[in-house]
Write a structure and sequence with these properties.
The chain is 28% helix and 20% strand. The chain is an alpha+beta fold. The chain has two domains: 30-242 and 497-514, 3-Layer(aba) Sandwich (D-Maltodextrin-Binding Protein, domain 2); 273-492, Roll (Dipeptide-binding Protein, domain 3), CATH 3.10.105.10.
Amino acid sequence: MTLKLIAALAATLAATPPAAAQERAPQERTTVVAAGAPTRSVNPALSSGNGAGFPGAQIFAGLIELDGRFAPQPYLAESWDSSPDGLSHTFRLRTARFHDGRPVTADDVAFSIDVVRTNHPLGRAMFGPVERVETPDPLSVRIVLRHPHPALLASLTTVLTPILPRHVYETAPIRTHPANVQAIGAGPFRLVEFKAGEAITLERNPDFFLPDRPRADRLVIRMIEDMASAVPALEKGDLNMAPHAGLPYREVERLKRSPNLIVRREGFEGIGAINYLEFNLRRAPFNDPRVRRAIAHAVDKAGIVERLHLGLSRVLDGPLHPDNPFASSDLVRYELDLDKARALLDEADLKAGPDGVRLRMTIDAPLNAADGLGRVADALKIQLKQIGVDVERRSTPDNKTYFSRIADGDFDAAMIQAFNLPDPVLGVHRLYRCDNQVKGVMFTNTSGYCNARVDAVLDEAAREMDTGKRRALYAEFQRLVTEDVPQIFTTTEEMFGVYGRGLTGLPNTPLGANAPFLELSE
C-alpha cells in the first residue's frame, strides 16, 4: 500500500499546471534560493522547529497568520467571530483547493486540529481546552471550548496547525505517512522535489486562494547542517537568503559588512529564543535555592554579551524574551557579586576544601547554538571557579545524546535554548508546570520545578481573555520564577535573517520564515 501511495502522490505532484502557469517563459521565472535546516518531514503538524516549519509554511495554509504586532489576520479563514463568553469561535473559510485540485473543506480543518492535538509536542497546550469541532457546512468551522483559551488564534497559524487534506492523510498512519515528505497542501507553493539531506524544491501554486500571490515562481530550500558554511554562498549570491540563520555572531558581523546583503534582526519576536542554565532540582545540592542563587551571583552576563557575543545578544534576566508582549521588568535580578555568592555557599554549608573547591558539578551543552550555549558553558567554568565551584563540561558526541540526558534527568545542570512562541501558553507553561514533568521528552519541565502558586497563576493566565489581567498574572509568574531560580537566564538567542539586496517583499511577521512568503520576489 505504501508504494501505491507514493506513486499516487508523485503522479499528483507531476500533474501539468493550469495554462496560466504555462504561459510564463522560462527566462522570466523568479527563483529564490534559501538556506534551511535539515529535516525529514515538511509537515509541521507533527513537530516544532524551523526544519519542517519553514517549508511547511509555504506548502500548507493555516486558518490565520500573525502580523508584525502579533495580531491575528485572515488567511485560509476569511473571517471569524466569537461568542460573548469566549467558548465558541466560528470561522468562515475561503474557497480554496489543495494542490491535487480537491476543495478545502471544514472537514479538513476538523481533521487537522485532531491530528495536531494528538501528535504535535504542543498539541495539548494548543487544543486541550477544545471540547469539540463542529462543521455546520463545508465552509464553516466552529470550535467549542470547555473554557476560554486566549492562545487559540495563535495556535491556528500555519506553522502550528497546517490544514491537511483528509483524503490524503487518513489513508495511512500519520506519523509514517509518505505525504509528510511528498506533501500536498493548500499553501502558496507546491512541492516539486524533496531530496533528503540536500534540498526541497517548491513551485508557485497557480491555483492559490489569494490572487497574484505568491510573487516568486520557485523557492529552493537547501538543507544546511552548519549554517556558518552558508556564509560564502551568501556572499557570492549562490544563496539569496538565510531567513532564520543560526549563524555564529562573528559571521553576522562579517555579513553586515557585505554590500550585497541585508542583515535583519526583526521578524522573530514570535519565536522568542532564550538561553539559560537549568538545574536538576532532583539532585542535591541543586535542590537548595541558596546554592542556585549563589551560582547566579557569579555569572557575568554582561561579559558574555560583550566578549562572547560581540554585543549582538542581550542580557536575559527572566523566562520571557524582552520582545515578548508579556515580558515584565519586575524581576528578581542577581547582580554580579562574588562575595554574596560565597556567603550563600557558606550558608548552605558548602565550605571550601584544601583545594579551594566547595562543589563539583557538570554542565551539558548541545552542539548547536554554540555561541549561546556551548561557549557560555565554557565561560561558566571560568566564572564559577572564582567562588569555588569546579565545573566539568561533559562531552557530548551528538545532540541526540544531549537531549536524552536532559529529558531523562541525567544531569546536574545544562545549557538549554527554548522558544517562547507567540503566546506563553504555548512556549512557556510547558517548562514550569509541575504536572508536565515527562521523562524522556525534551522541552517539558525537565528541571523538576514545582511551585503551587506558579501552577495556579499559569492556570489562570491560560483562561484569562483580558490582556491587562494576563499581563499582571505573567508579571507575578516571572517574579516567582526568578525568586526560585530553577534556571539562571543568561542571554537572548538573537536570530538574524540574511537577504540579498535584490530581494523585495521581505517577511514582516513575528514568526520569521515560519510564515508564508507571499510577497517575496527577486
